[in-house]
Amino acid sequence: MSDHYVAKAKTEGYRSRAVYKLQEIDNKYQIFQPNQFIVDLGAVHGANMS
Predict the structure, then answer these.
(1) What is the distance between the alpha carbons of residues 23 and 38, in angstroms, rounded to a whole number?
(2) Which residues are CB-neighbours of 14 under 8 A, at least 6 positions away?
(3) pTM score above 0.90
(4) pLDDT above 80 for 18
């Protein structure tokens, strides 16, 4: 993919680009606590799921 966040996630060792949206949410609402596990169950928009 040519997405900047996909490349950034890969170089930083994250499994997906969702980490940046989760960081944005936490910066705004402070809802996550240390040592919590966060599971993102989203799907790629427009993906062929067949």
Answers:
(1) 11
(2) none
(3) no
(4) yes
